[in-house]
Task: structure prediction
Amino acid sequence: MKAKQQFSPFFLFLALLVAGCSGKQTLRGVFKNQTPYEQYAAKLKDAKLDETALGQDWLQAGTQALQDSITVSLPFRETGYFAADVPKALGYRFDARRGERIVVNLEMKAREQLQVFIDLFTAPLTQSDQPAHLAAADSSHTLAYEVEEDQPHILRLQPELLRSGQYTLTIQTEPTLAFPVEGKSSRHITSSWGAARDGGRRSHEGIDIFARRGTPVLAATAGLVSRVHTTPRGGKVIWLTDLNRRQSLYYAHLDSQLVTEGQRVQPGDTIGLVGNTGNAIGTGPHLHFGIYRFGRGPTDPHPYVYRPRATLPAIKVDVAKLGTWVRVTPKAANVRLQPSTKSPVYRRLPRHTPLHITGGTSAWYRVALPSGREAYIAASLVEAASRPVKYEQLAADAALLEAAHPLAPAKEHLRAGSSVAVLGSYNSFRFVRNVAGQTGWIQTKPTLSAR
Result:
């Protein structure tokens, strides 16, 4: 096994620059059919940077983000900070339904141009499954993807090496089809998919949208009118073929049909008028709207036309604290895996536990615990860890560690008698600042004398 080679950040940057700008053809070719993330990873390997500690950390961060993704509810907005010296990737897991379009947008604030890789995956349903790549964002940091199956998805966000910047990420969904009744919206849907019909002998294969008789019925997508006819159950009906999505749209109980078979229509074109023909003769005028996938039968139309009323959450946290250390203020505080009080408690932390702020959404901070795991804590439960809890003098020599772990690298060697400002504590470690202004961790095994 080859040992990790150590390179300075400056050397790594130069190597990446050469790898990115060289016109020399590599054995990997011109990255045909590779995502931007895969192209960048290939450049690392071609430049032998995957044999360095920093390069390996970057590749591992990308893999780890898919395994340790944080579950969020849509719509979602978060702001955060990428530090140049720490390879990092973020994973966001959320549910999405067939018929929705996932829309992702990333805004960056950075002194230098910063490339961020945005990739969408299906989440593994079992431990033996692997995430399946679905889509990658373009250079404008935007991504739109039409969901094909009801299942959890994971969005991975990872910046290139040795670049820092502040990000604001938004993830939301929108319907893939236009609403099929003029002047109405998804809040006017009154009968849902799967409801019992005919005493339970069949189920409702669509949604009902009530409107005044004669209200225009609209093409929900561009397509070809495949059938215009009358049936005992549906009354006056129209079938519209959506070849792009391999499905047919079904409009029933119309008062009038205003298109002919073989006619091509565009979204918003009037194709008929609302009525109550067929077996709806005893009800008020409404449109029965259904979707039938080619070779797979009926599917719930609701996600295809439903536009969420929820707005993107405002960022209420203090963004000036991004990248800084804070500590728990009450006697004990809960951190959660989701930014919600309804989310299960991940850890209950005692007062003065140091936390590193990596992002924020609504009134919640995304924080890295001393263990390295990220979670969320309400902004009201923390304070800046700049003012010392107390001052202490070292009774013995001690190492100022990078992390709260006995095997963490030492940043500095502190002599016995040195004065330190204690900013917080976690398990058997103290988070301190030395007289030179450096912060780090010391084990409490060396005797400390308060003063």
